[in-house]
Write a structure and sequence with these properties.
heterodimer, A: about 170 residues, mainly alpha, Four Helix Bundle (Hemerythrin (Met), subunit A), B: mainly alpha, 16 helices, about 65% helix
Chain lengths: ~170, ~450
């Protein structure tokens, strides 16, 4: 079996899981299941990045999104308990549905016109192996982008201190 | 013969070779879980002055047995078949699914709990990177090996949280929540301690981590290997990593998610039969693989002793060192397995020795002790790297030791200023609200002093 065929099979399989996960986030009624679908989506996206040869972005995707944020997200959901909403029978008569559909079409059109169409030509190329390696990313953090990097870390520090100040009432 | 076959496979059919690599790791982990369970039960009972399972598998041959040497003899196997019998028991037990569980999540949860333990083994090199072992291990020598380990281990909480949630049981839910809280807290200290090692190595590839550890000790002793546990900062990192490891695998003394005196059995209270066995297996597989991670990061991976045999051979010319060097190469997988078993023995020893921590002790240890210590260690390693690059090996050590001394002085100052350095076990104070002075005022009452009338 040729490796390109295998790559295609793996890609379509992962894409299918990612799309199903994304749909699950929107359509599943139980918030915990929706969160789990989101984890599946993030995880398979990370695997697709691996397939494209960019390990650093892939592992960041798994670590930051699938790992850290989702654990906290599950916390919130569990404290909210299972608030499965009532079945909405008059979905198509609802005005919100029509406007929602219209805005969804507009957003899809915008994404197509501004993001996908201009980048169409760059699909399917071979990537430079050293591009996006941990060393390259670290170097650009501490040379070209050192000021934005430091300012962001101060911002995060302020956020942490602020959240502790808000959460811890007694001293 | 076998080596040539593998080399040909590497050229003709790398896909099949990849599959073989996966089977080596997964097969080893799966096959070694039952002996591990036996080892834990026997060792634990020996440490606690009990006998443990020693009866199953004892064969008494009849007097008229055809083989004369065995007739009438009793052959003991020290209870080695016990895990097998346990497995049979778990298989044939009735699989009860409580009526009000969230069915889909309830069935998925054990599988998700098992996944990280097996996925973690993918980047561990269990043999040297040259020759035959070079094409057999690791499964994937990725650029981001250390990050991969951290990312996959952070996914370990999902199985437990989902099991706790889907069981629709208060105790299960509390167990699952504790598991996730514990994992989030200790992940930070673990990541910071490993980050120090990554900085010292200059790469996140696990094969590079092992290769650097094969270099001269402290950059100065050519015949010894620079295992990170032998360097000062590496030792601190190793201790932090080991504590975080025990917490991440939910083992005693950090087994709060399944604290049986508070939560029945925690997140797997409602699980029975094979589904419970999967959780059990996941825990042991995780212990095994995490021990492998520890061995790779701090104990020189697959090397048998921190001695550079070839340097000794070059210095003395004695043939024995060349032989030992070859032995070190060919015995590498066994040595790696031995280190994994050593790690698990340490886990069992901890379980037999230490009582379970209280929840606030767990959080204090993680956030107030391990995290600051690992960050300080990180800074020390940073100074060591800069010093080595600017002023050579001696400059690096001077910078690191100086930073350590300054850090220790700052720590002592903080200790005396805050006076909160006393461990929680020696003195317990109870916070009580003083009603006369209003709701906001809080008085500290020491329970050991007699209450005034």
């Amino acid at each position: 079996m040729s490796s390109t065929l295998l790559n295609q099979v793996a890609f379509y399989l992962l894409s299918a899981i990612a799309i199903l996960g994304a749909l699950g986030v929107v359509f599943l009624k139980s918030p915990v299941r929706a969160a789990l679908a989101l984890v599946a989506n993030f995880f398979t996206l990370g695997l697709i990045y691996f397939m494209l040869g960019n390990q650093m972005i892939g592992i960041s995707q798994i670590m930051v999104y699938a790992g850290a944020i989702m654990v906290l997200f599950l916390f919130v959901i569990m404290i909210l308990k299972d608030q499965t909403p009532e079945e909405d029978k008059s979905l198509f008569q609802d005005r919100r549905f029509i406007f929602g559909l219209l805005s969804a079409i507009v957003i899809c059109g915008l994404i197509w016109a501004l993001v996908i169409n201009p980048t169409m030509q760059s699909f399917g190329g071979e990537m430079d192996r050293s591009y996006g390696s941990p060393q390259a990313i670290g170097r650009s953090f501490f040379t070209t982008y050192v000021w934005p990097f430091e300012i962001i870390s101060i911002l995060l520090l302020v956020g942490i201190v602020g959240s502790i100040m808000l959460a811890k009432r007694k001293f | 013969m076998v080596a040539e076959w593998f080399f040909q496979l590497n050229e003709n059919n790398p896909l099949l070779l990849g599959l073989i690599r996966v089977i080596f790791v997964v097969g080893a982990v799966l096959a070694l879980v039952p002996p591990l369970i036996w080892w834990e039960r026997r060792l634990l009972s020996w440490m606690q002055d009990r006998i443990g399972p020693n009866r199953s598998g004892t064969i008494t041959f009849p007097d008229n047995f055809p083989l004369k040497g065995l007739a009438g003899k009793k052959v003991r196997t020290f209870g080695l078949i016990q895990p097998l019998l346990d497995g049979v028991k778990l298989f044939f037990k009735e699989d009860i699914t409580p009526s009000d569980v969230d069915r889909k999540l309830y069935f998925i949860a054990p599988a998700i709990a098992l996944f990280p333990a097996f996925a973690l083994g993918a980047t561990l090199p269990w043999g040297p990177s040259t020759g035959l072992y070079g094409i057999l291990t690791p499964i994937a020598d990725v650029e981001i090996g250390v990050l991969y380990v951290l990312a996959i281990s952070s996914l370990g909480a999902y199985g437990l949280v989902l099991a706790g949630y889907a069981s629709n049981n208060k105790y299960s839910l509390m167990g699952g929540l504790r598991a996730s809280a514990q994992l989030i807290s200790y992940e930070l200290a673990m990541a910071m301690s490993v980050a120090a090692i990554v900085m010292a190595v200059g790469s996140m590839k696990l094969t590079n981590v092992v290769a650097i550890q094969e270099g001269p000790l402290w950059g100065a002793v050519p015949w010894a290997q620079n295992w990170f546990i032998l360097t000062p900062f590496g030792f601190i990192s190793a201790v932090i990593f080991l504590i975080a490891l025990v917490a991440e695998t939910n083992r005693a003394p950090f087994d709060l998610p399944e604290a049986e005196n508070e939560l029945i059995a925690g997140y797997h209270t409602e699980y029975s039969s094979m589904k419970f066995a999967v959780f059990f297996m996941g825990e042991y597989a995780a212990m095994f693989v995490f021990s492998g991670v520890f061995a790779t990061l701090f104990l020189g991976g697959y090397n048998i002793l921190p001695v550079n045999w070839m340097a000794l051979h070059d210095a003395t010319g004695a043939g024995i060192f060349k032989f030992l060097s070859n032995a070190n190469y060919w015995l590498a997988p066994l040595v790696f397995l031995g280190k994994c078993f050593g790690g698990i023995t340490f886990f069992i020893w901890l379980r037999a020795t230490l009582p379970r921590l209280r929840y606030d002790q767990l959080m204090n240890l993680g956030w107030k002790s391990l995290l600051p210590l690992s960050v300080a260690n990180f800074i020390v390693v940073g100074l060591w790297v800069i010093g080595t690059e600017l002023y050579g090996v001696a400059g690096g050590w001077a910078a690191a030791i100086g930073a350590m001394v300054i850090g220790y002085i700052i720590y002592l100052n903080i200790l005396t200023v805050s006076k909160k350095g006393a461990p929680a076990t020696t003195k317990r104070t109870v916070t009580m609200v003083n009603p006369e002075a209003g709701r906001r005022s809080v008085a500290m009452v020491d329970p050991s002093t007699p209450k005034s009338p």
